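Usage

Read records sequentially. Each one opens with the input sequence:
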Amino acid sequence: MGRYILKRLLLILPTLFLILLANFVIVQAAPGGPVEQQLALIEQSAKDNALGGNLGAGSAGNTSTYQGTRGLSEEMVAAINAQYGFDKSAPERFWLMLKNYAKLNFGESFFKGQTVTDLIIEKLPVSISLGLWSTLLIYMIAIPLGVYKAMHHGSGIDKATAMLLAIGHAIPVFVFAVILLVFFAGGSYWNIFPLQGLTSENFDQLSTLGKVKDYFWHLALPLLASTVGGFAGLTYLTKFSFLEELGKQYVLTARAKGLGERQVLYGHVFRNAMLIIIAGIPAAIVGIFFAGNFLIEIIFKLDGLGLLGFEAIQQRDYPVIFGTLFIFTLVGLLLQLISDLSYHLIDPRIDFEGR
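and closes with the structure output:
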């Protein structure tokens, strides 16, 4: 197993390289980068000042001396390019980025005045908080419900819950989040929950119990939105995994020996049926943390990695874009390796090194 782990760890390096390279090429080809945005901002500011100067001059008809009326000088354009590192060629910038990333130096944000590492550390607790609670709730609901549906396959409750799951799965997360805001956060109906944020303005002045209540009060709608859209797939995965195992010969043998249903379920079926669910945990965590909750953070204005990434894309803040991409990819690859190790721990017959 040690050789397999070493191979997987070594494969992380070329995987990260190819993902960063592909995204670097795509981002460089996209119009409206930080240099263009800064130039447009300076030109617009200069034109506004020139217009104000002309209006202030009255009817004298004086010609404005503002730089904006004549366009930006080559020196100013060169200085802005150097400020953002665009005075170097694309291959040079990519090579410099790789060298810095090898030292875990992700650079400094173009627009926020902080290093990317500090920004990620600052925003990470919000994303972890939302992601952990979402994952916990999804698994606490989906696995028991999936087992129950498997044990009562075809019953009235199974059919009723199937319809509810289909509806929950069909509604996009962001649509359900907006519906919750409209109905319960001061939209057209009830003003029960906060519209945005994770804490109130007076959070520091509250008691410990008050802080806990305030935290979950703000988290209620985001958690509900992310949970409803996330547990349907896991519920069906659990159900059909158990149904497949319940139809196998060893289950019939166990029942023929007089074992009760609970003994058959938890003593024989559970471990085998949970293998495929455990295999899906890394993908589920990555999806919940970095995909589903990405939109939740934007809609509810939760100051986490999702909102940070969204703002970085809007502003073409390349250091933040690539830094968060690097972290997300690395975490996803490590979680996939942990999933394989969990496979082996639960069922030692599964030998990845032998394959």
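Summary fields computed downstream for this record:
- The longest helix spans residues 116-151.
- The CA atoms of residues 108 and 118 lie 9 Å apart.
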